[in-house]
Amino acid sequence: xxxxxxxxxxxxxxxxxxxxxxxxxxxxxxxxxxxxxxxxxxxxxxxxxxxxxxxxxxxxxxxxxxxxxxxxxxxxxxxxxxxxxxxxxxxxxxxxxxxxxxxxxxxxxxxxxxxxxxxxxxxxxxxxxxxxxxxxxxxxxxxxxxxxxxxxxxxxxxxxxxxxxxxxxxxxxxxxxxxxxxxxxxxxxxxxxxxxxxxxxxxxxxxxxxxxxxxxxxxxxxxxxxxxxxxxxxxxxxxxxxxxxxxxxxxxxxxxxxxxxxxxxxxxxxxxxxxxxxxxxxxxx
Length: 285
Fold this sequence. Notes:
By secondary structure, this protein is an all-alpha fold. The protein is 76% helix and 3% strand. The chain has one domain: ABC transporter involved in vitamin B12 uptake, BtuC, CATH 1.10.3470. It is built from eleven helices and two strands, in the order ααααββααααααα. A two-stranded antiparallel ribbon has the order 1-2. Helix 5 packs across helix 6. The protein starts with a helix and ends in an 8-residue tail after the last helix.
């Protein structure tokens, strides 16, 4: 029973982390039909920005993250509006290659500016824990679960209860029809891309406190995000939450039953099984 409780707590903590990392990727994939291969670099870049702001202004990590949000949003908006939007008419392959190029360029830029040493965000949340049913887990895992639920709920409300959300869904369903009704599709898509990057910044604070990142770490988090998005169903907000928790539980179960070296095998075996059984994901829209 103790092992089961430990597995559930660690699994939900890991799953919450994956939800926060993948939510922005899911939003962009669902609305724009775009798999952003630079998603991991947005996350790593946000970690570097948070540490820079913390060191410069002596701010709390979460205040530094709030200061990072508008910077990340503007960067993503400009990239979408000035580059990716022009490539959308040429098909998904052109956009895919472009985001891959952005990913490589960002990694090189991170190495030049920050060097190659691992960087982490110092916070007591990553060093102290809380006891739950006799099992001690780090506070940052609890924060990850809370952020996962809050951001998923907030994103759902934004998409279903606001004028912007309705415009976004209209553009996702039929961009030409939405444009004929007065929706500025280019602006809406750029806002969506920026919003996805902002959501990723919340993942950055959890990743930066719980782990460390290097300039090349983006691919690791991109692959976890892709696994969650595909399992949950492209663009399904609640599917992302469910899939993230599922992946976290599966990963921790694999660690307990097989060993930590089997983490990736368990996660991506689950991904393959879901693709075979339900190619559009478990919770397709």
